[in-house]
Write a structure and sequence with these properties.
5-stranded parallel beta sheet; about 1000 residues; about 5% strand; mainly alpha
């Protein structure tokens, strides 16, 4: 949360207005009192005069058109001691304002004055009142998301203190009233935040607000609830203890009954407190309504009873906790087509969006539920920083985000009920459609539909729709033979019919005869697969040579889908020619168009394509060549992204050479988008490449070049799992150079995850293996990594030795960014050993190297190190500037780990400057961003700083809870920081 919402441009707040059309609209008057008293004609500011003149204008504006007598205005401006010429002064101010304002706006009436004739939205206070009424109406109607958003808009109209700089007793009384109203609105919005499950983000805002308004019990109550729902029960109880002590010391009273009751419910772990009453996703500027359903099949045929049955179940979602329909059936029976068709028909009943995922249950590696939940949460508008790490937490947040919304979830190709359960919405008004080859009898509450093959009539209808009525009408018996030969399976019928549609010289009888021949050729196959494989064989056999080659080779690569550019690499063809081939395969139903520029196979078709490649690709080396080109493409493109993100970094010069080129990008944003879009495919293919010795080194280098995937937090688990698989393959191969690089990627992942002991052992092995292979760059990287790990573990002498070596050898390699990295890390060693001046100098050197090379992302690391050094030297404003510069870059680069750590360092700056409330806000935001990444040691550091900040704002009991949690972390990790935290707690322990 960001407190009272403010506009990003830093300019003055003006009342909301319609975009003007006529010149009269453009020139209309507007006023603000929720901040300095100001006036505008159109966009041009008006001179409202002296403070007393503005006080007169404010008094008239706040009367909302009612007349104020001269006596009332004198009392408003000067109170009980007006000057002798007060009446004359009032008349003068009024005369001057008349000259500034439009004619007829400031009128004289009954010996007084009034402001009349203002247009709609002319006064910010009136706009705020209208928005508040709208929010209250929406809340009463149960639309909390809209109510919250409207209240944000109302609160955004404040521009600092209301009536700022306006003298007089009336203005002072109104300031107090308006500030109280603002706080009430803020409390109302925060209350709805918690009702909708946004507790984790609310903690930082509430911490700052309780510091600014320590005696306001409602804010304390909301903070307790937010902490409790964030899993921080001890801190929630500590807030109560802090509040009770403060109220006793300051006012001599006990907490109000509501606060005492909340404390008791927290002590009793009341289940009703744990879940928000109507949770929903954090609203964004434009409501996030995912529309992920695949395209509907235009020639959908038959299945009328199933469509009616499933549609009826989905229509009942409003009256049930959740409507679940599970479609079971063999491959190719049309489960996905039916589910997609029904989902499209039901879209109007789910106005808040539709989610879709292929769970890949029939493949060798089914999708992990936690990965799917991460994708769903992002699609629903949840920030990466708010997505927790564990499956259980993600599932709980997913259900909270969906509650209060009407969303349809299509879970396609599920493996089993265990994979599906965490993905079910569980919310009133939501529904799930599940397709699977397994009958999910253990999916409690599901409406089970067993989808069989089509009836002969339905099968014939589908065949006729694709082939055409004229061709079928004269050969109905042959057409029935065809659909029977296809086993009445929709997938097989579609492929066979598409083949006939493309062969205008064939008759239906010719197709029937050919299909019968294919069945005889495949009679050794199992009966369940016979019809589909016979149809595949027929469809494949009728492809043009170029189409058949594309079909075979594209089936070889692992991954959920493939981009057009990657497919062009596989086929070694121009993109335009590749697109024509792929679209022709889509026309035959052997390939699907997943999205513009992306393609995928049905899992059965993929298996068949691979079998064809094994059988028919001649020479067999062409299969390896195709996979080699794809690996080259991924490696060259990832290296290009790396080079754009880190200009001058020599890593790209030490990667395996590639023969096939990668993509080029116009800017950093496009390069970064490619990396994160392709992350799943890239990691899957890198893992697949581990099985081939000829491609193993390039696969490892691909992972090295794509290390941003690990630091981002979005794909950290997949990155680490891939690194581990590549390391195992490298060890089996016994090549020191390859093993060293694989170890380095895994060590990097472990450092990001805070597992420093393991990372240090791996880095030590890297040094030994890379030196043996005369591969100097991994040695330098490993030395740099060991220096950082030694710093984290308090082994400063070891760290300095490693980093000095890294600096020397990076220089020998001409790797200036590597040198800058080691210099910045050495700066932190100097800080830890009291050499502040040299620490500043080293960090400055590192930052200047990065800047000279245009390396903005790693330049942010330089600013991070320099900000730390400047903090210790006491140059707090300069330190904060450097850290804010770094924070902007890290956010733009999607580097969640470094974003969170920079917020933590800003909290340290705030504490050094005694800005404790801001320190608490930054530390809380750091905890939120670092959820699920960075490891426990970093969390312990943030908790320690948060404890200092909370002590500074008087929340000492809560501070003690933070320190105790930090101490548990440090003791478990045997970290040297434990001693300092133990000392912070020692007075309490002694007591």
């Amino acid at each position: 949360m960001d407190g009272v919402p403010r506009y990003l441009d830093g300019g003055p707040r003006v009342p909301e207005q319609r975009r003007p059309g006529s010149s009269a609209e453009r020139d209309r008057l507007r006023f603000s009192v929720l901040g300095p008293v100001r006036a505008w004609r159109g966009d041009a500011p008006l001179n409202t005069g002296s403070p007393q003149q503005r006080a007169l204008l404010a008094a008239l504006l706040l009367r909302e058109g009612r007349t104020a007598t001269a006596a009332e205005l004198i009392d408003a401006l000067w109170g009980e001691e007006p000057p002798s010429q007060a009446l004359a002064a009032v008349r003068t101010y009024a005369s001057r304002l008349r000259k500034v304002l439009d004619a007829g706006v400031l009128v004289s009436e009954s010996g007084g004055y009034a402001v009349r004739g203002l247009g709609e939205g002319a006064l910010d206070l009136a706009v705020a009142q209208e928005l508040t009424a709208e929010a209250e109406k929406a809340r009463n109607a149960g639309d909390l998301g809209h109510a919250r958003e409207v209240l944000r808009r109302a609160l955004a109209l404040w521009d600092g203190e209301a009536l700022a700089g306006v003298p007089g007793p009336y203005a002072e009384a109104q300031r107090v009233r308006l500030e109280e109203w603002r706080l009430q609105l803020l409390e109302s919005r925060l209350d709805m935040d918690l009702e909708q499950g946004c507790h984790a983000k609310a903690v930082s805002e509430l911490t700052a607000l309780t510091a600014a308004h320590p005696l306001r019990e409602r804010l304390r109550e909301l903070l307790m609830l937010a902490l409790y729902r964030s899993g921080r029960q001890a801190e929630a109880l500590a807030v109560y203890a802090d509040t009770r002590r403060l109220l006793a010391d300051e006012l001599g009273v006990d907490p109000r009954p509501e606060l005492r009751e909340l404390q008791q419910r927290i002590l009793q772990a009341d289940p009703a407190l744990a879940e928000p009453s109507a949770p929903v996703a954090e609203p964004s500027a434009v409501p996030v309504r995912p529309a992920q359903l695949p395209a509907n099949v235009p020639d959908f045929t038959g299945r009328a009873s199933f469509v009616a049955e499933l549609s009826e179940v989905l229509a009942s979602a409003e009256g049930r906790v959740m409507a679940v329909s599970a479609l079971a059936g063999i491959g190719g029976v049309g489960k996905t087509t039916l589910a997609v068709h029904v989902a499209h028909q039901a879209r109007s009943g789910f106005p808040d969006g539709q989610l879709y995922v292929d769970l890949q249950g029939a493949g060798p590696r089914a999708a992990e539920p936690e990965t799917v939940l991460g994708s769903f949460l992002r699609a629903l508008g949840t920030a990466d920083s708010a997505i927790p790490d564990s499956l259980e937490e993600r599932a709980a947040l997913y259900r909270s985000v969906l509650d209060g919304r009407r969303v349809l979830v299509l879970l396609d190709n599920a493996r089993d009920a265990a994979q599906v359960r965490p993905l079910l919405p569980g919310a009133d008004g939501c529904a799930a459609l599940v397709t699977s080859r397994a009958r999910m009898v253990d999916l409690v509450g599901a409406h089970l539909v067993d989808l069989d093959v089509m009836s002969p009539d339905e099968a014939l209808q589908l065949f006729t729709k694709i082939v055409g009525e004229e061709r079928v009408a004269s050969e109905r018996e042959a057409a029935l033979d065809v659909v029977a030969a296809c086993g009445f399976l929709p997938l097989a019928i579609r492929i066979a019919a598409s083949r006939l549609a493309a062969r205008r010289t064939w008759t239906v009888s010719v197709l029937a005869a050919k299909l019968a021949d294919e069945r005889r050729r495949l009679d050794e196959l199992q009966a369940g697969d016979l019809a589909v494989k016979a149809t595949f064989e027929l469809g494949y056999g009728q492809l043009e040579p170029a189409q058949a080659r594309a079909f075979r080779l594209l089936g070889l690569a692992d991954g959920p889908d493939i981009s057009l550019a990657a497919a062009a690499a596989v086929l070694d063809l121009p993109v335009e020619e590749t697109e024509d081939l792929l679209e022709s395969l889509v026309d035959t139903s052997l390939l699907e168009s997943a999205a513009p520029g992306r393609y995928r196979f049905h899992d059965l078709v993929r298996l068949y394509a691979r079998a064809c490649a094994e059988r028919d690709e001649q020479p067999p080396s062409e299969r390896d060549a195709a996979m080699s080109r794809l690996l080259d493409f991924y490696l060259a493109t990832a290296a290009g992204v790396y080079a754009i993100e880190r200009p001058g970094d020599r890593l790209v010069d030490h990667l395996a050479s590639t023969e096939y080129p990668g993509l080029g990008f116009p800017d950093r944003g496009a390069a970064r988008d490619w990396l994160y879009t392709e992350a799943d495919c890239l990691l899957a293919f890198a893992r697949q490449s581990a099985g081939r010795p000829a491609t193993l080194r390039r696969a490892i280098d691909l992972l090295w070049a794509a290390l941003d995937i690990s630091e981002s937090g979005a794909n950290s688990r997949e990155y680490e799992a891939t690194a581990r698989a590549l390391l195992e393959a490298a060890r089996r191969g016994g090549v020191a150079r390859v093993e060293a690089r694989a170890l380095m990627t895994l060590a990097h992942a472990h450092i990001d995850g805070g597992r420093f002991d393991v990372a240090d052992e791996e880095s030590e092995q890297v040094i030994r293996l890379a030196q043996k292979a005369d591969d100097l760059l991994p040695v330098c990287w490993a030395r740099n990594a060991r220096g950082v790990i030694a710093l984290y573990q308090g082994r400063n002498a070891d760290g300095e030795e490693h980093l000095s070596y890294a600096i020397e050898h990076f220089r020998a390699l001409g790797d200036r960014p590597g040198e800058a990295s080691a210099l910045c890390n050495l700066s932190r060693i100097h800080l830890a050993t009291g050499r502040t001046q040299s620490a500043v100098s080293l960090a400055q050197q590192g930052m200047e190297i990065y800047d000279a090379m245009g390396n903005s992302m790693r330049g942010a690391n330089g600013r991070y190190a320099l900000g730390m050094a400047l903090t210790q030297r006491g140059q707090l404003d300069l330190a904060a500037n450097r850290l804010h510069e770094a924070l902007e870059v890290f956010r733009d680069s999607r580097q969640r780990l470094w974003e969170g750590m920079t917020l933590f360092r800003l909290a340290e700056v705030d504490i050094a400057g005694r800005h404790y409330a801001q320190a608490a806000t930054n530390a809380e935001m750091a905890l939120t961003v670092l959820r699920g990444i960075g490891g426990e040691w970093r969390r312990g550091n943030v908790l320690t700083v948060l404890g200092h900040a909370l002590t500074g704002i008087g929340q000492t009991d809560r501070a003690q809870v933070c320190w105790r949690e930090a101490l548990c972390i440090y003791e478990e990790l045997a970290s040297p920081e434990a001693a300092a935290v133990r000392a912070l707690l020692s007075p309490v322990r002694a007591a």
